[in-house]
């Protein structure tokens, strides 16, 4: 048997490929669940269904999805333009730093000023961090994969340096910042829940992105720049400029995610402010096939599993990392299945070794 | 000269890609000391067949034998072991490695390489072929002709008995072609079988003992070269149904040799001389390391004329296209479109100044995943946008009108990637023409098209000229230029070596200019 | 102010060791045109498996062998994704890193809740009484065997020719009868093994225990070093030594209290910033392997 590239592919094929990938992911994640001594069936019920079956669980899912919405859409914006921004992690962190800088220097602002300022500072932090690789790409054609990636650990070191130095907690002496003033607390989006207005901001950004991608000339130019840069250039589309700007917008959106996280959840800067959100954003955007609607669906799915994983770790003693395992497996299996769908199995036509003649009947 | 015994034999080779039959039960043989030419248009299935013989593509059926022994070739290594050597169309050399390293690449094991012994073997091999290149030079420092010689040495480095040359002359200067032919003759005398793949009739007639003709994947004829006329080969290649002059011009046969068809007379040209040129290049220079790619290039195109730019590829055509299109800025000089200087303008500015373009690289000019209607407006988005928003109704209406007018076989929402080459060229032509350009620059506008599409493109270009626009056609194909243009300029090493009205543009005179002999206009 | 130069040099060699192992591993992979961003996860896997097996069996040797096995498997996984399936290399690499780290953390949490196990028998330094030379055998091998061997293989052997040919022009390699697939798989497996050894060195030789932040970006440092070295062996070693030197110096300064207000984080950020600065200065002159980030498909 061997793989042969398909001539035509039926419309249901991509759907089937994703379905198969999900099944494979579930089957593979059942192994660590078993190893942890839990029943995979019961565990998956808790991973997938329990969080969504109660209002409280739903709120937790929304809360957990919020940073992933920011980083997912940020990565999608850059990838759409053909700019491989692997640096959402660092941009998210620097967004948190930007917000913290404002919050620590102007602690007493009223919330009508503090919240917009916090988001702007966060966005600028992320944008600033995205600027250097984007500029190097535009000026010197320097590959952005490596530069954006390498700035992630640097951003974490910046956070650590600040928390070990000037921003060390003045009361406890621990390596996290002072608590922000009350003006910087993002109000709950749904009263009585932890879901904060960061979720609302993220959804607004997703909707705007969807609108730009599908309805505007700029959106079409971005798409052309990402899919066929030479043809786009030939048609007079300023590919380099669009990529540069998309990279900056991407950084700003990731930075706004950092702002949302410090103002909505932690209310102070901590070393663990980004729980791999930037890297997970790459998973989200890729699984979403870079579509804004897809970003929402995938972010909610991964958040659902993450919340479920917390729950399962308490009840069934399966470590919470199962959520991360599931997300990474899903990424790899979906990508693989979407590639494999271009092929079909055929009976092997030719023998690999030996000098046997190949007849047309045997080969067909 | 007479073939002795069949060496390599292919029989019933079949290969399908989806619905496309690239090779349909093709059989042919090459004997020791014989040069067999395989002739066919672009897309006739020649390259696929060669890749099958060399183990780069697996056939769906058929057998390959050497000396009557069946072979199972599933990789180039198998082919080499069986005594088959190939020089691919795009060279297969590692630029960062030396000549020796490249030649030895296919025979090194995993362990230590004895560089000195390898170098000696390479030098010996070069002596046998009659090639002299310093074995320690990096490939990146070699000229195109030298690289091809390294390729031949590489192919012959093993106990090679059949050498395949896939379109070997496409990138060569006339001098290099001459040297190549001498090498081939020399090798033939040593008993090597040569399979010479080409779409150029003249070369085939000169070099081969026997010709096989491939059309749409099938073998349609096999003749001894001495006993066949080029016209017969041409109609075999084209299918024999098309009018003779189309056949002739489409396959690169000089139109002048078709008795009843004289060269197209120069057009009336009334008043064109007095009217302001629509395209003027003045001293356009584009510096490149070593030698300028464009060297004080100066010429003009007037409204209502089609100017051909002939020349062997690699003499600045690509760079000229980039400079004209605004993809690259010239080092110095001046470009004017319809009286306005566009030298420093980007693509957008040039389009707005009235420049239209049709490039050689069709697939590189469209966004494959976007629909036909979106590709059609890609160069003119501002006209189809209202306050930044795409005007969907206008885009659809435009696409429907263009599809009707240009007879494109597609719906507005089909992705362009699903279109045939001819339809894709129609989309590009429609996109360029619907902006009503003052001057259209077209590079190899008919390459790889079937006869119908070929005629269609020529008609459209003539129609555009008759509406008063200027057209510049860049092509390697003299016969296409002679049937299409009003006057022909020749590009050599980035400069114009001369120009002739089409009536005076004989192949001989053009040929002389293409190798650098200056002729007064 | 007193800086103990000998202690500094000794620390520098130890800190550089995992970077040399994994950096040369990444170099070999990248020579074939594959960017293996799975390196961070592969080092993590090596550190964890090495520790786990050594703890269970009582033998650091078995731990090392298991780590090598794990690294080979990680390389195979990268090969499946980027060579056989031809998927986007950076997304696949990040996916592999995230998967491996999550899986190891999962296993560690599952096996050792609360407890902090330590190896009873870890690799001991050779020549404990000789300053500077008081290094682990893996350090000696890294500098005296691995680096010269890698240099020689890349420069003078058929294997080296193959790696370079695949990385620079895979069509040419294919036409020359060199299997692009096999070459890339071999590079990924060998590279994966070296990365895993680099990780295992930390648990089996230096620390004797496993912590969740054990690799802490060292894989990304290696990515930086390989580019900084322009894909050459000795500059990778040199870069590792410079990075380790600044880190060791910083530790010394912290001890001597003289310069303790120089932020350690700034020192740690230096290798990344140095690479970005170098890329900015070299600009277009950096010659990446020509088939970098590309999948090979015949036909």
What is the CATH architecture assignment of the largest domain in chain B?
3-Layer(aba) Sandwich
Task: State the CATH class of the largest domain in chain B.
Answer: Alpha Beta
Q: Tell me, what's the shape of chain A?
A: globular
Q: Calculate Rg of chain B over CA atoms.
A: 25 Å
Largest interface (CB within 8 Å) is between: A-C, 51 and 48 residues
Shape, principal axes of CA atoms of chain B: globular
Tally of separate helices of chain A: 14
Mean pLDDT of chain B: 83
User: Strands of the largest sheet of chain A, in order across it?
Assistant: 1-2
Largest sheet of chain B: 6 strands, mixed
Judged by helices, strands and strand pairing, the structural class of chain B is alpha/beta
Name the structural class of chain A. mainly alpha
Number of strands of chain B: 22
Cα-based radius of gyration of chain A, to the nearest Å: 23 Å
Spatial order of the strands forming the largest sheet of chain B:
6-7-8-3-9-10
Give the amount of beta strand of chain B, in percent: 15-25%
CATH superfamily of the largest domain in chain B: P-loop containing nucleotide triphosphate hydrolases
List keywords for this structure.
heterotrimer; A: 364 residues; mainly alpha; two-stranded antiparallel sheet; 2 strands; 2% strand; disordered C terminus; C: 299 residues; 11 helices; 0% strand; cell membrane (chain C); ABC transporter permease (chain C)
Can you offer a commentary on this structure?
The complex is a heterotrimer of chains A (364), B (521) and C (299). With 364 residues, chain A is mainly α. Chain A has a domain of 237 residues. Chain A has a two-stranded antiparallel ribbon. In chain A, helix 11 packs across helix 12. Chain A starts with a strand and ends with a helix. The C terminus of chain A is likely disordered. With 521 residues, chain B is α/β, with parallel strands linked by helices. In chain B, a hairpin with a 2-residue loop joins strand 1 and strand 2. Chain B starts with 5 loop residues before the first strand and ends in a 7-residue tail after the last helix. In chain B, the strands form five sheets. In chain B, strands 6-7-8-3-9-10 form a six-stranded mixed beta sheet, with helices on both faces. A six-stranded mixed beta sheet of chain B has the order 16-19-20-13-21-22, sandwiched between helices. Chain B has a four-stranded antiparallel beta sheet with strand order 2-1-4-5, covered by helices on one side. Helix content of chain B is 32%, strand content 24%. By secondary structure, chain C is mainly α. Chain C has a domain of 201 residues. In chain C, 71% of the residues lie in helices and 0% in strands. In chain C, 56% of the residues are buried. The interface between B and C is medium-sized, with 31 and 23 residues.
């Amino acid at each position: 048997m061997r793989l042969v590239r398909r001539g035509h592919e039926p419309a249901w094929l991509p759907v089937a490929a994703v379905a198969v990938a999900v099944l494979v992911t579930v089957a593979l994640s059942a192994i660590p669940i078993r190893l942890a001594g839990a029943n995979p069936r019961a565990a998956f019920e808790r991973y997938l269904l329990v969080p969504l079956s109660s209002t409280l669980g739903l709120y937790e899912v929304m809360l957990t999805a919020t940073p992933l919405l920011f980083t997912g859409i940020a990565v999608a914006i850059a990838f759409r333009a053909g700019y491989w921004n692997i640096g959402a992690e660092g941009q998210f962190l620097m967004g948190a730093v930007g917000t913290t800088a404002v919050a620590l220097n102007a602690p007493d602002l009223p919330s009508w000023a503090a919240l917009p300022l916090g988001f702007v500072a966060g966005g600028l932090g992320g944008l600033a961090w995205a600027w250097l690789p984007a500029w190097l790409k535009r000026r010197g054609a320097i590959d952005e994969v490596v530069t954006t990636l390498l700035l992630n650990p640097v951003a974490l070191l910046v956070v650590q340096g600040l928390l070990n130095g000037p921003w060390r907690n003045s009361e406890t002496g621990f390596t996290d910042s002072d608590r922000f003033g009350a003006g910087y607390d993002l109000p709950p989006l749904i009263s009585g829940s932890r879901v904060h207005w960061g979720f609302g901001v993220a959804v607004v950004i997703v909707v705007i992105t969807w609108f730009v991608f599908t309805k505007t000339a700029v959106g079409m130019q971005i798409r052309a720049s990402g899919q066929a840069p030479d043809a786009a250039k030939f048609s007079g589309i300023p590919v380099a400029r669009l990529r540069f700007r998309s990279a900056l917008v991407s950084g700003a959106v990731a930075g706004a995610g950092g702002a949302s996280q410090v103002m909505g959840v932690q209310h102070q800067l901590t070393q663990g402010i980004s729980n791999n959100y930037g890297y997970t954003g790459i998973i989200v955007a890729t699984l979403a096939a870079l579509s804004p609607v897809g970003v929402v669906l995938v972010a909610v799915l991964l958040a659902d599993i993450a919340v479920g994983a917390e729950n399962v770790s308490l009840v069934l003693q399966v470590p919470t990392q199962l959520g991360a395992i599931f997300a990474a497996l899903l990424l790899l299996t979906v990508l693989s299945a979407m590639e494999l769908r271009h092929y079909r199995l055929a009976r092997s036509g030719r023998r690999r070794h030996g000098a046997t003649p190949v007849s047309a009947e045997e080969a067909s | 000269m007479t073939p002795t015994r069949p060496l390599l034999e292919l029989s019933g080779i079949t290969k399908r890609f989806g619905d496309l039959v690239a090779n349909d039960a093709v059989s042919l043989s090459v004997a020791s000391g014989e040069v067999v030419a395989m002739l066919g248009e672009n897309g006739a299935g020649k390259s696929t067949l060669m890749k099958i013989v060399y183990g780069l593509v697996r056939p769906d059926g058929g057998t390959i034998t050497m000396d009557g022994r069946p072979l199972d070739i599933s990789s180039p290594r198998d082919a080499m072991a069986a005594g088959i050597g190939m020089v691919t169309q795009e060279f297969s050399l590692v630029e960062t490695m030396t000549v020796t390293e490249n030649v030895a690449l296919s025979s090194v094991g995993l362990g230590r390489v004895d560089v000195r012994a390898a170098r000696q073997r390479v030098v010996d091999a070069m002596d046998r072929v009659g090639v002299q290149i310093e074995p320690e030079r990096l490939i990146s420092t070699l000229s195109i002709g030298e690289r091809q010689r390294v390729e031949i040495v590489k192919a012959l480095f093993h106990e090679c008995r059949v050498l395949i040359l896939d379109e070997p002359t496409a990138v060569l200067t006339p001098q290099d072609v001459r040297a190549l032919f001498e090498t081939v003759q020399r090798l033939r005398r040593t008993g090597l079988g040569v399979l010479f793949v080409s779409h150029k009739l003249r070369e085939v007639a000169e070099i081969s003992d026997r010709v096989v003709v491939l059309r749409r994947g099938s073998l349609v004829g096999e003749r001894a070269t001495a006993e066949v006329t080029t016209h017969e080969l041409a109609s075999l290649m084209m299918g024999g149904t098309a009018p003779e002059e189309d056949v002739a011009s489409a396959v690169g046969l000089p139109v002048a040799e078709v008795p009843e068809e004289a060269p197209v007379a120069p057009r009336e040209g009334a008043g064109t001389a007095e009217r302001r040129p629509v395209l003027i290049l003045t001293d356009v220079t584009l510096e490149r390391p070593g030698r300028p790619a464009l060297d004080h290039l100066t010429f003009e195109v007037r409204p209502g004329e089609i100017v051909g730019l002939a020349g062997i590829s690699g003499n600045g055509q690509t760079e000229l296209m980039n400079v004209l299109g605004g993809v690259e800025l010239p080092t110095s000089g001046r470009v004017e479109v319809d009286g306005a200087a566009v030298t420093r303008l980007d693509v957008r500015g040039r389009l707005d100044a009235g420049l239209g373009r049709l490039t050689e690289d069709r697939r590189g000019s469209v966004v494959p995943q976007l629909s036909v209607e979106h590709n059609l407006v890609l160069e003119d988005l501002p006209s189809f946008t209202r306050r930044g928003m795409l005007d969907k109704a206008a885009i659809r209406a435009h696409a429907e009108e263009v599809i009707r007018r240009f007879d494109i076989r597609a719906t507005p929402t089909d992705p362009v990637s699903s279109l045939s080459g001819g339809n894709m060229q129609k989309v590009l032509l429609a996109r360029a023409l619907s902006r009503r350009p003052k001057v259209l620059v077209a590079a190899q506008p008919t390459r790889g098209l079937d006869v119908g599409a070929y005629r269609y493109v020529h008609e459209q270009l003539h129609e555009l000229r008759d509406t008063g626009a200027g057209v510049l056609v860049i092509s390697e194909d003299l016969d296409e230029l002679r049937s299409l243009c009003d006057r022909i300029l020749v590009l050599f090493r980035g400069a114009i070596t001369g120009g002739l009205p089409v009536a005076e543009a004989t192949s001989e005179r053009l040929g002389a200019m293409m190798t650098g002999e200056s002729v007064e206009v | 102010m007193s800086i103990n130069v000998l202690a500094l040099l000794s620390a520098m060699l130890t800190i550089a060791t995992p970077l040399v192992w994994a950096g040369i591993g990444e170099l070999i992979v990248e020579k074939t045109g594959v960017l293996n961003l799975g390196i961070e996860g592969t080092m993590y896997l090596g550190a964890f498996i090495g520790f786990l097996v050594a703890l269970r069996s009582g033998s650091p040797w078995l731990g090392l062998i298991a780590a090598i096995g794990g690294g080979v498997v990680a390389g195979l996984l990268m090969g499946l994704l980027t060579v056989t399936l031809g998927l986007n290399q950076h997304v696949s690499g990040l996916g592999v890193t995230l998967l491996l780290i999550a899986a190891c953390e999962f296993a560690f949490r599952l096996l050792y809740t609360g407890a902090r196990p330590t190896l009873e028998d870890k690799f001991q330094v050779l020549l404990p009484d000789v300053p500077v030379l008081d290094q682990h055998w893996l350090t000696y091998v890294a500098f005296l065997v691995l680096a010269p061997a890698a240099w020689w293989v890349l420069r003078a052997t058929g294997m080296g020719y193959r790696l370079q040919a695949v990385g620079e022009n895979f069509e040419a390699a294919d036409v020359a009868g060199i299997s692009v697939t096999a070459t890339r798989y071999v590079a990924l497996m060998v590279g994966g093994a070296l990365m895993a050894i680099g990780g295992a060195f930390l648990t089996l030789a230096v620390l004797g225990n496993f912590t969740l932040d054990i690799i802490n970006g060292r894989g990304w440092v290696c990515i930086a070093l390989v580019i900084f070295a322009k894909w050459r062996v000795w500059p990778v070693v040199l870069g590792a030594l410079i990075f380790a030197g600044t880190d060791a110096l910083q530790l010394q300064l912290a001890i001597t209290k003289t310069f303790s207000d120089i932020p350690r984080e700034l020192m740690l950020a230096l290798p990344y910033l140095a690479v970005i600065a170098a890329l900015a200065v070299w600009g277009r002159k950096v010659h990446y392997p020509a088939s970098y980030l590309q999948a090979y498909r015949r036909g």
